[in-house]
Every structure is written in structure tokens, then in C-alpha cells.
Design brief:
alpha/beta, globular, Ubiquitin-like (UB roll), Rossmann fold, 24% strand, Elongation Factor Tu (Ef-tu), domain 3, 18 strands, six-stranded antiparallel sheet, 8 helices, binds FE2/S2 (inorganic) cluster, five-stranded parallel sheet
């Protein structure tokens, strides 16, 4: 059985436009009843007016069972799902949403936890901070990005318990908060380097994932890191935590560039892969993969999927229409049959049994282990 979530109706109960591009949407059931439970790191699929399907991290307190909150960063130029939210998601509008799913959960470990947030990617990490604080586990949330993006979120009462634990830069701090005094919650403050970062660049796409998300030339989190020299501030933070704790849990979320920088530094510093957990709010870029061929079962047409293409991109470029929605292997829109060859499954949609059967594939993200895949569209 595939992982297609159940959809149900909700209503926009409240919308707050923060003036910094951050829009906070509160969703409730029409009858005000409880919603399916979720934990930090969860997201929901949202069927937006007009038919677009988008995925958003849940950012409200999970203890509040009758409402979901989403935070989306939307500029005047944002298109796709962000544009629909800006123009049409007003109080009273009814939507269809799916049950929460969580590919980025907090591991049930007790060691110190470092949370690295890039821009609007901070939303799942705020809930992780909340969960860690309530569990009495030591943690620190370090934010890279525009101060006003974080400040807009920090106004939400959901984060009152943890807002003083967020380490941000000293020039663009949260209003009325002494961020220099940020500490590892539940632990004496470690000797943190003072380089939490901000550079005021164009705002990125909101916490929206999907192939229609507009391109962002310099994501705010990547610009924040670059403003201090490539990787330098990050090395200071990570090596400090290595010195202090030897092993620790690392969770990070942000733009593709932000994530890649962290991934590279973790490898360089020898931080064990099993201690690193991440989620990107943009589809991963395909680069440096192995090329292979796809044969269309019905027509016999053979199309080459290059090292830097998804199967869906290669087929669409060749005039074979493949519909894409999430672009991340989450929704099942691009599902196709496999008649021959071995898929390299990289999706979160198919169950383990379905993947083992090797007779289906998600064309937006999965690849091939064999030199040719014969697919049935
Ligand atoms: S488009 Fe959603 S799984 Fe491929």
C-alpha cells in the first residue's frame, strides 16, 4: 500500500501578514474539532485553491490539537503556491489538506542537540526546540538568515518558551531579546563563536516545496554564511560542539545551498552521518549522477536521462508529458509502472514492499540501477 495521506477539509481561521513577507495561516476543522496529531518536523500536503498541491511544515504548538499553523514567506514577486496563498488564502476559505507526515522526526535520544536553521527553514526547528525544551534535553537553535524573518515568527505565542534560546547575529537581533546571552537550554552556555550571521538579501521562497517555486538567486541563509567566509562560521560552531560533547545530534533545515554547505562541513569535520538529520524545503538538485536510458513501453521510444536530469525532466524535454506536483517523491503524482530494469527508489511515497517489488517508480526523483528502465506511463 502506498503512503497516500487521507485528505479532509479545513477552514482558514486566521491569517497574519507580518509585513516582512511572512504570512502565518491558522487552519481549523469546520466543526472546530481536533485535528490528527503531529510532532516536530511534520508537514502536510495542502490542496490550494486553483488545484496546486503544496507541502508545508507545521509550525504551531503540537499540544494545541484543534488548529494547524503554517508559516510561508511570500514576496510580491512570488509565484506558484506562494502567490495563491498571498492572494486567495483569506479567513473563511475552505481547503483540503492531508494528514501530517513526518520524514524529519526528532530521534528518541537524550544527548545534546544542535539545531541549524536557514531562513524560513527555521519553522520545523522551532518545534524541535519546543519539544527538546519540554523534554529537558540540552539543545541550541542557531539561526542563519534575515533577522526580520525570524522576528516575524518569534511574535507567535507558540514559541514563548524557547525564543530566548535562539542564537542569532548581534546586528539584526530579535526585538527586546538579549540574544548574546543565548544558552544551550538545560546546560551552561558553551563558548559559542559569535558569528551567527545575517545579510539582508532578497527574501527566499517560503516554506513551500514544489517544482513551481520561483528561483531564488541568493537564499538568505546561504548569503548569511557567505558574508562570514565560506564555511568559516559553521566550522567554528561544529568544531566547538565536537570539542565540548564529542558526539551530538545535528538537525538542519534551509535552502539547498545552505544544506549542502552544512553537509560538506560535517563530512570534512568527521561528524558521523548517523548523527546528522536534515530536511530541505526545495527539491534536491540533480547533479553528477549516472546517466541511463528510459524506454517507453507503449512506443519503444528511448530517451537518455543525463547525469544532471530527473527522469521527469528528461521525458518532458523529449515531449513525453509527465505531470509533476511536489517534485520530491512525496505525493505520487508522477507514479509510473516499470516493465523491465531496476529502479533506484528515492521517494518517500512507495512502501518498502512496493519498492522491493520494483514494478513502480516515481519519476520526479528516483533513478535507475540498471542501464535501461522500461516504463509504462
Ligand atoms: S511529483 Fe510528487 S512524487 Fe513525484
Amino acid at each position: 500500500m502506498s503512503g497516500q495521506p487521507e485528505f479532509f477539509n479545513v477552514v482558514v481561521a486566521e491569517r497574519k501578514d507580518r509585513g516582512t513577507g511572512v504570512i502565518v495561516i491558522t487552519l481549523v476543522r469546520p466543526d472546530g474539532g481536533p485535528l490528527p496529531p503531529f510532532a516536530a518536523g511534520a508537514h502536510i500536503p495542502v490542496q490550494l485553491p486553483g488545484g496546486l498541491l503544496r507541502y508545508y511544515s507545521l509550525c504551531g504548538d503540537p499540544a494545541r490539537r484543534t488548529r494547524y499553523k503554517l508559516a510561508v514567506l511570500v514576496t510580491r514577486h512570488t509565484q506558484g503556491g506562494g502567490q495563491v496563498i498571498r492572494e486567495r488564502l483569506l479567513p473563511g476559505v475552505q481547503l483540503s489538506i492531508g494528514e501530517p507526515r513526518n520524514h524529519f522526526p526528532l530521534e528518541p535520544r537524550t544527548g545534546p542537540t544542535l539545531l541549524l536553521a536557514g531562513g524560513i527553514g527555521v519553522t520545523p526547528l522551532l518545534l524541535m526546540a519546543l519539544a527538546l525544551k519540554r523534554q529537558g534535553r540540552p539543545y541550541l537553535l542557531h539561526y542563519f538568515g534575515r533577522g526580520d524573518t525570524l522576528a516575524a515568527l518569534a511574535e507567535e505565542p507558540d514559541y514563548g518558551e524557547i525564543v530566548d534560546d535562539i542564537l542569532v547575529d548581534t546586528q539584526n537581533r530579535l526585538p527586546r531579546r538579549d540574544t548574546d546571552a543565548a544558552s544551550v537550554s538545560g546546560q551552561p552556555r558553551p563558548p559559542m563563536p559569535a558569528e551567527s550571521i545575517t545579510e539582508d538579501t532578497a527574501a527566499p521562497v517560503p516554506g513551500e516545496s514544489g517544482p513551481h517555486a520561483p528561483a531564488e538567486p541568493i537564499p538568505e541563509d546561504a548569503a548569511a554564511m557567505a558574508s562570514h567566509g565560506s564555511g568559516a562560521p559553521l566550522d567554528g560552531i561544529l568544531s566547538d560542539w565536537q570539542r565540548r560533547y564529542r558526539r551530538f545530534e545535528l538537525y538542519y533545515c534551509g535552502s539547498t545551498e545552505f544544506m549542502q554547505t552544512i553537509r560538506d562541513r560535517c563530512v570534512a569535520l568527521g561528524i558521523p552521518e548517523e548523527d546528522c538529520h536534515c530536511e530541505s524545503f526545495a527539491p534536491p538538485k540533480v547533479t553528477g549522477e549516472k546517466a541511463f536510458e528510459v524506454k517507453i513501453f507503449a512506443t519503444g521510444e528511448i530517451i537518455t536521462v543525463s547525469a544532471n536530469q530527473t527522469i521527469a525532466d528528461a521525458l518532458n524535454d523529449a515531449g513525453v508529458n509527465v505531470e509533476i506536483s511536489c517534485g520530491q517523491g512525496l505525493c505520487g503524482t508522477c507514479l509510473a509502472g516499470v516493465k523491465d530494469g531496476i529502479p533506484d527508489h528515492r521517494d518517500e511515497y512507495l512502501s518498502a514492499d512496493e519498492k522491493a517489488a520494483n514494478n513502480k517508480i516515481l519519476l520526479c526523483c528516483s533513478r535507475a540501477l540498471s542501464s535501461t528502465l522500461v516504463i509504462d506511463l
